């Protein structure tokens, strides 16, 4: 069972907390927190019950004491004063506390005589009656009275109200045995002030004091307290003078207090009523005294402490009351009151107010040993001792919990680390061991296969040998000198062109195969080699028996000796080097070609092998450097000397770089040859790479570029010259350009002037045009004004002339006719003027009509029928019918003008009007011919001008305006879109011609 | 007796034209302003109207338009008398509703004949 529990606990803690330790710590922590909270709660509860200095009633409910009482026991508490009187309330509180502690079943009645407000006790009668009503039938066992007035009252009316009750009194001042003389069943406490102790204590704390001002009221109690104090003080303080207050009002008291000398003290006794009947509470009196007195105030009542008095040997009302209650309880439990003696002992305690002590500079250490200080600023810690301690405890527990957990975690991590490490180690060891085993296994395997392979290899190598020989064209032979036996490998047969193993293998036979020219050489070489033991290594020709082909072979051999040192065997090789020889030949050919080409091109070449550090120079290269080709080429450092230091400085890094990075170079270098003139070459070099792109050397060329260089130099010099010339020329150009700019600017100014002038001209022109236009418009509008009176002149004169208004005689008629004629003349003048102005101002209206020319001509002619007849002229009109599309009215106007002129200026003869189409039928020509006086040549030009009247013999008698022809011209040209001309022979006649388009085009916007 | 209306502000011209019209047998009503002319036209419904274009207040064209617009006398022949005859005048006259026009000065001897010609009488 225990095991099961254990397991369960372990599992539980692991699941929820991760480990047992953690679980333990967490529970500890929770307990601690719970404890803390509870203690806090208690403290808060406690705080509510800290006792305040005075006044409050603190009712505790406690367990009932063991003493049991009869159910519904009754007690009456009779107070002398009123509720709110601190002393009285405290007494009552003390009484009730003890009574309730003893038995909650006791019923108590509390009454107040209110004697502070009614000090003369005139209301006692009324109260007596009230109490009679209330208490007469109630049989109260004990009546507790507080203070003197209540005792007086009870004693006075005892037989009436409480005949059978026991009486317990307390708070009685100036108690004397005689007070209760003749009374039975009465006991209590006397209120004993401790003024003496108070004053003693005060004087000790204020040694400089010389005077004590004693305040009290003039009620019975007040006076009693005074007497008591006086008695206590009597004879005790010789150096001190005591002054007793009179019966005063509040104001008087205040003033008196203010005037107190510095070396005095105030002693407050019972003071509840002022002279004018104003009631004051204990607290307020203390406040009053404290506020208005410059010196410390001491008291004898507990009730004043905290409201202004410094302190004193203070009476406690509460203690009084509780004592009285205890006596009452004793009486209730059976003890007769007469058996209890009156308690005369003082119920006082020395107490001080911290605030007042501070105010008057009384050091705490001077206070008497067992005195109580209220209002002391309580340090948090001292008042909340338990709270602080418990908090600290909890904090410690929590901290330790954290530390435990922390260390736990740390240790765990360490353990995990160690574990991991050991695991790794183990693995490593395992892998190591495994690798070793694997190796050994492989080794074994390897040896087995090796053996097998060795065997195979052997077979293979034999096969290879013969293959190798075949491929390399190298055969092997063996000559046994003793037996003169010659053994050839297969390849030799092939080289010699013989079918294998056919040859009779002797030395002589071999020689036979050698080229005839070389036989001697070969033979002597071999013999020499054998005899002198020198290496046999020769090249000779052979002739293939099969096809007579000559081939080159390279022979080598070694001799074997016997024990005596004699050569017995030769073993050698024969290599067909025909191809090689051919290649050599070709190469040599190529080389010479190269050399030739180099010589021709003046380019030399070099080749440097870095691995062997050998350099090769071509012949031309030597020649370029003016060196002897037969000598070996100089090494690199040496060869740098051929250049000038400047060129060498450029070449060296380029070569080095090329070796490192393979970067080819091409540099122009100057040769430093003191013996010759300056020579330049262009040196090129590049890296040689092998199959793996590794640089294993350099190769390059050099070319004599002296001529080129010189040419370059010349060009450069020319360039410089050119540039110089360019600069000077540019300077010149700039100067010219500046000049140009100036002239340009001048030109611009002129242009601006011109523009301005042009604008001015345009402006003037516009003004003129405007003026002209306004003029025309003015005339046109005036025309109306001019025509209106004319209307009347012409109208009325014609009406009168025709006899519409009445008969007219011949002379009147003639005169009227004159008026009429003049009017009409004037009208025609005005019309002409208006027409001119209309045309000039562009306001002429043009109407297009289709009509026959002949019609218009006839109409015009019709108007002059009379005049023609009168003058006896001959009028000829050619009846030509032509259709035209133009302004009929205007055409008529022109024709009328021309015909009128013709008639005017012709005295005799004829007037002829003709018309015909011209200009491919697009124009029409109308001519008016006359046989009149004609026009002088010099006048022809002035003819069509306005207001020109030609001087002629007829001019004076011929009426005219001078406008007619100019208007006609205007109409013809500007309205009808045509031309007008005049021809004349002076004295013979004139011919006026109008030419207009058959179809008048519509002009837009005129 | 046919009554005709002459709207003309110049007294002399009015007198002359009245001679001609009365001689031809018409009774002549006259108005000196355009507004008066419109009123009379509507009220009297004359046989025809001679309308001077240049009038104070509303001009003859406006008066013509108003008469044409009125129901009472929309059809009455109106002949304009104008002194300008500038370009576009004829079109304006016809557009306003005139049946024809004469240019000042008017020949009193021939005016009635010309009127009859225009009206097709």
Question: What are the defining features of this structure?
Answer:
heterodimer, A: 1006 residues, alpha/beta, five-stranded parallel beta sheet, five-stranded antiparallel beta sheet, 50% helix, flat, B: 121 residues, 5 helices, 19% strand
Write a structural description.
- The complex is a heterodimer of chains A (1006) and B (121).
- Chain A has 1006 residues and is α/β, with parallel strands linked by helices.
- Chain A is built from 27 helices and 29 strands.
- In chain A, strands 2-1-3-4-5 form a 5-stranded parallel beta sheet. In chain A, strands 14-13-17-16-15 form a 5-stranded antiparallel beta sheet, sandwiched between helices.
- In chain A, helix 4 crosses helix 5, helix 22 (810-840) packs across helix 27 (964-975) and helix 25 runs antiparallel to helix 27 (964-975).
- The radius of gyration of chain A is 83 Å and the shape is flat.
- With 121 residues, chain B is an alpha/beta fold.
- Chain B contains 5 helices and 5 strands, in the order E-H-E-H-E-H-E-H-E-H.
- A 5-stranded parallel beta sheet of chain B has the order 2-1-3-4-5, with helices on both faces.
- In chain B, helix 3 links the parallel strand 3 (49-52) and strand 4 (78-82).
- Chain B is globular, with a radius of gyration of 13 Å.
- Chain B starts with a strand and ends with a helix.
- The mean pLDDT of chain B is 87.
- The interface between A and B is medium-sized, with 24 and 21 residues.
């Amino acid at each position: 069972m225990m095991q099961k529990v254990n397991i369960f606990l372990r599992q539980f803690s692991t699941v929820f907390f991760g480990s047992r330790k953690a679980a333990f710590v967490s529970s500890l922590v929770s307990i601690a927190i719970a404890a803390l909270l509870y203690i806090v709660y208690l403290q808060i509860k406690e705080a509510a019950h800290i006792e305040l200095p005075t006044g409050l009633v603190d009712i505790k409910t406690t367990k009932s004491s063991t003493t049991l009482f009869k159910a519904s026991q009754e007690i009456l508490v009779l107070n002398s004063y009123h509720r709110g009187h601190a002393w009285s309330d405290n007494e009552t509180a003390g009484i009730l506390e003890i009574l309730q502690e003893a038995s909650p079943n006791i019923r108590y009645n509390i009454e107040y005589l209110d004697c502070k407000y009614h000090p003369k006790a005139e209301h006692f009668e009324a109260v007596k009656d009230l109490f009679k009503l209330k208490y007469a039938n109630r049989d109260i066992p004990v009546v507790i009275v507080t203070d003197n007035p209540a005792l007086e009252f009870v004693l006075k009316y005892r037989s009436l109200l409480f005949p059978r009750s026991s009486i317990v009194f307390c708070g009685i001042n100036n108690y004397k045995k005689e007070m209760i003389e003749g009374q039975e069943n009465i006991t209590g406490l006397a209120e004993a002030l401790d003024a003496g102790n108070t004053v003693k204590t005060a004087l000790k704390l204020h040694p400089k004091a010389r005077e004590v001002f004693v305040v009290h009221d003039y009620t019975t109690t007040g006076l009693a307290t005074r007497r008591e104090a006086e008695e206590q003080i009597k004879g005790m303080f010789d150096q001190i003078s005591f002054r007793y207050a009179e019966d005063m009002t509040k104001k008087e008291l205040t003033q008196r207090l203010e005037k107190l000398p510095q070396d005095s003290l105030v002693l407050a006794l019972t003071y509840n009523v002022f002279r004018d009947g104003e009631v004051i509470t204990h607290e307020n009196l203390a406040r009053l005294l404290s506020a208005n007195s410059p010196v410390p105030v001491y008291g004898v009542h507990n009730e004043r402490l905290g409201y202004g008095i410094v302190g004193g040997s203070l009476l406690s009302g509460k203690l009084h009351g509780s004592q009285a209650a205890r006596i009452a309880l004793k009486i209730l439990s059976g003890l007769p009151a007469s058996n209890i003696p009156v308690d005369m002992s003082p119920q006082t305690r020395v107490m001080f107010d911290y605030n007042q002590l501070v105010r008057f500079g009384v050091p705490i250490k001077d206070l008497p040993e067992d005195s109580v200080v209220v209002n002391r600023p309580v340090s948090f810690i001292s008042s909340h001792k338990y709270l602080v301690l418990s908090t600290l405890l909890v904090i410690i527990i929590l901290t330790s919990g954290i530390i435990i957990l922390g260390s736990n975690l740390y240790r765990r991590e360490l353990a995990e680390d160690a574990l991991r490490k050991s695991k790794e180690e183990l693995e490593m060891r395992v892998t190591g061991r495994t690798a070793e085993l694997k190796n050994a296994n492989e080794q074994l395997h390897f040896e087995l296969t090796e053996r097998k392979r060795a065997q195979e290899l052997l077979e293979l190598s034999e096969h290879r040998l013969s293959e190798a020989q075949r491929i390399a064209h190298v055969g092997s032979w063996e000559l046994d000198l003793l037996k003169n036996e010659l053994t050839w490998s297969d390849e030799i047969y092939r080289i010699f062109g013989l079918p294998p193993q056919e040859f009779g293998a002797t030395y002589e036979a071999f020689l036979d195969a050698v080229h005839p020219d070389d036989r001697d050489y070969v033979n002597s070489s071999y013999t020499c080699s054998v005899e002198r033991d020198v290496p046999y290594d020769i090249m000779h020709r052979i002739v293939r028996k099969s096809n007579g082909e000559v081939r080159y072979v390279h022979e080598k051999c070694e001799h074997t000796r016997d024990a005596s040192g004699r050569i017995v065997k030769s073993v050698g090789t024969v290599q067909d080097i025909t191809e090689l020889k051919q290649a050599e030949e070709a190469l040599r050919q190529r080389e010479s070609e190269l050399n030739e080409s180099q010589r021709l091109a003046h380019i030399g070449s070099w080749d440097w092998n870095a691995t062997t550090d050998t350099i090769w120079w071509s012949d031309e290269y030597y020649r370029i450097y003016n060196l002897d080709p037969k000598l070996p080429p100089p090494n690199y450092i040496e060869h740098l000397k051929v250049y000038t230091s400047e060129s060498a400085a450029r070449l060296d890094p380029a070569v080095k770089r090329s070796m490192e990075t393979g970067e080819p170079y091409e540099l122009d270098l100057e040769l430093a040859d003191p013996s010759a003139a300056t020579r330049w070459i262009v040196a090129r070099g590049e890296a040689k790479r092998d199959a793996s792109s590794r640089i294993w050397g350099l190769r390059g060329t050099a070319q004599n570029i002296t001529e080129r260089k010189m040419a370059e130099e010349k060009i450069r010099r020319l360039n410089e010259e050119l540039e110089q010339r360019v600069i000077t020329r540019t300077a010149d150009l700039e100067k010219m350009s500046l000049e140009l700019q100036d002239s340009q600017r001048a030109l611009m100014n002129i242009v601006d002037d011109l523009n301005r002038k042009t604008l001015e001209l345009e402006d003037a022109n516009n003004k003129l045009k405007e003026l002209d236009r306004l003029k025309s418009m003015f005339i046109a509008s005036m025309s109306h004004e001019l025509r209106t009176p004319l209307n009347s002149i012409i109208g009325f004169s014609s009406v009168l002339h025709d006899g519409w208004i009445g008969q007219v005689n011949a002379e009147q008629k003639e005169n009227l006719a004159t008026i009429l004629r003049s009017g009409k003349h004037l009208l025609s003048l005005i019309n002409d003027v208006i027409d001119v102005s209309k045309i000039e101002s562009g306001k002429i209206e043009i109407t297009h009509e289709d009509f026959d020319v002949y019609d218009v001509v006839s109409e015009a002619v019709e108007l002059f029928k009379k005049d023609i007849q009168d003058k006896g002229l001959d009028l000829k009109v050619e009846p030509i019918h032509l259709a035209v599309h133009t302004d009929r009215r205007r055409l008529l106007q022109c024709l009328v003008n021309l015909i009128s002129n013709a008639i005017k200026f012709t005295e005799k003869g004829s007037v002829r009007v003709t018309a015909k189409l011209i200009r491919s039928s697009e124009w029409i020509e109308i001519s008016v011919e006359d046989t009149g006086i004609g026009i002088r040549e010099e006048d022809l030009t002035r003819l069509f001008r306005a207001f020109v009247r030609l001087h002629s013999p007829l001019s004076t008698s011929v009426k005219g305006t001078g406008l007619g022809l100019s208007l006609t011209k205007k109409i013809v040209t500007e309205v009808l879109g045509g031309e007008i001309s005049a021809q004349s022979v002076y004295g013979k006649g004139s011919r006026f011609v109008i030419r207009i388009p058959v179809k008048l085009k519509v002009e837009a916007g005129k | 007796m046919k009554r005709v209306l002459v709207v003309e502000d110049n007294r002399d011209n009015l007198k002359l034209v009245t001679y001609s019209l009365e001689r031809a047998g018409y009774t002549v009503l006259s108005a000196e302003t355009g507004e008066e002319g419109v009123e009379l036209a509507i009220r009297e419904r004359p046989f025809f109207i001679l309308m001077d274009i240049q009038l104070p207040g509303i001009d003859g064209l406006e008066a013509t338009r108003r008469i044409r617009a009125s129901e009472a006398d929309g059809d009455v022949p109106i002949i304009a008398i104008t002194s300008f005859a500038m370009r576009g005048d004829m079109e304006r006259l016809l557009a306003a509703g005139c049946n024809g026009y004469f240019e000042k000065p008017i020949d009193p001897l021939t005016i009635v004949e010309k009127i009859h010609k225009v009206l097709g009488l």
